[in-house]
Please model this.
Amino acid sequence: MQNTDTEKLRDRYRGALLGSAIGDALGATVEFMSRADILAQHGVHRNITGGGWLKLPAGEVTDDTQMARCLARSLADVGRFDGDDISAKFVEWYASNPPDIGNTTRDALKRLAAGLPWTEAGLQTHEAMRPRDASNGSLMRAAPVALFTRTDAELNARYSADQSRITHANPLCIDACVALNSAIAALLDNPAADATEAAIAASTNDIVRASLAAVPKQTVETLSAGGYVLATLQSSFWAITRHDSAEATIIAAVNLGDDADTTGAVAGALAGAKWGFSALPQRWLNVLIGGDELLKLADQLLERSMNQ
Model:
């Protein structure tokens, strides 16, 4: 690969991780707010200001980015998918008493912390909580897998599914992660790729496929942006397919409200993979906390993907 092509790819790798973190940090301010309340209090929410129900400092991220960072660290350090290592990193993070953990994730991490193998913890959570466990907690963190496995579609699908199974073994969650990461990998390789088409092609679940196929029919009024995994998937793909820049995509996603940080994180990963780090507004990058490590991890994942 020529140096210019490598640098363009590096820009998109960095964009995917940083775009996701930015969507998370921007969305955290308006998480759990309705669209009407966002409009009344912020107009169009477009600046990373912190606050929100978690009362975060400006630029701080939530569990979305924190768990994605654990996954990225493991893939970069170990050089393969290691469920035990990823689970240990998740449990270490859980033990740090983070301010926000989703209910499904919390249940599975409790089981992991008690010594249950990762191959069983998510399954037991699924049995105990279904159908309430069809939530977006594994989708929000999935993007590093796409960066690591970009050159191998089969490996991308397998690792995307396995990272979901650690906490979210619901078939909808597993397949949504596979679909999302297929789209991210397609955009990393070719920014002009049809992200929705790539996601549908990778999905083996009729419900997920139908949700993605319905994206072109959706409007701000008809979209749901809550914690249901397919609501997040659909809203994120709507945001990237209806807007012409990374900034516009991320702003549109978080202003849908409800689970705004997660919709922002997933849409931000897609947008960053498509338009690159260089397209992310400097005003966001200037305040983002932890961006330097994410840049390093993106570069490490690129190197790993090129040496597979």
In short: The mean pLDDT is 97. DSSP finds 16 helices and no strands in the chain. The domain at 3-306 is CATH 1.10.4080.10 (ADP-ribosylglycohydrolase fold). The longest helix spans residues 3-28.
